[in-house]
Amino acid sequence: MEHQEWLSEINDLPPYQDFIELSDPHDKSKWLVLQSLFKWSEKNSEEVIDEKNNTSKMIWTKLRSYLVKKENFKEIIKILEKENFMGNWMPECDHLENIYLGEYYWSPSFLDKEIHYFGRFDWVYPRDDIPILILPTFDDYFHTSSGRDSSFAGLSINISMLHKWIVENMKLNWKIANKGFYNEENELTAYDPSYSIDEPKLIIINREKLLEFLNSNELDIFWIIYGNKHIIGTSFEENKDIRYDINGFFWLDRDKNKVNGNFDLKNIIYSNLKDLMKQYNSITKKNAIWRGKITKQFRKWYNTNTGNIL
Description:
Elements: H1 3-7, H2 17-20, E1 21-23, E2 30-41, E3 56-69, H3 73-80, H4 108-112, E4 134-136, E5 138-143, E6 157-162, H5 164-169, E7 173-175, E8 180-182, E9 188-191, E10 202-206, H6 207-216, E11 219-232, E12 243-253, E13 258-267, H7 270-284, E14 289-290, E15 293-294, H8 296-306
Antiparallel strand pairs: 1-2, 2-3, 2-10, 3-4, 3-11, 5-6, 7-8, 8-9, 9-10, 11-12, 12-13, 14-15
């Protein structure tokens, strides 16, 4: 299949609903994925590498979930199912540095940095123009090979964790020795399987226990996905149509007791986008990117001036 044909083909993308709802083959228990990062790429072999252009195909997708108050659930669906989540603009906490994994949630070292200055927060607006409070369900522990946590013996580790608000309000205990979160009955409630086995990084939570918590607190949950299909080994300048963005929105439909939603695939011409960012900066004297994220002001300007939705 030619590169351009493959890039625009949506039918070879996975059914993302199946990535949210999981079942343990051993005890048939049901789990929900709260955060994940998935990557698929062709192996570096003669069969899959285009020798003429030295290129190969790749797909990556991030999945993120958020809580919202039940009274705002329908409104947030109506707003966010139309949004493009590329640009990493939805709120998520920055990972903490120089914290031991065993110190999470309770130690003075952790609590001293659990403030907005360090990119830490709980309930927050997605954007200034979306005045509905949401809570990211997830957090990250990141340790470099040169970090001071000697329990990892010089390894670089990235583990998905639960947000502190959820840990506290579900009354969970983080047990580093057991590599999971346990409730007051000492039942495993959430964990990152990649901690112990060779799996994509993700945090999963027991479906039944989460739903019980949501029901008792008048809360609901939704997921966003974003990523792209692209060709490795090509630059923007070599092929301006080389990336297609994956974008989706899902929510837990209580009436049907399943995850609903959809995703699409859009061609974003990144070379043109870079030119438009320069044009925006020249006209407004403002940056289109702030702290690694596309600003809402540039998105509004882009949508108004191109007729497209970014």
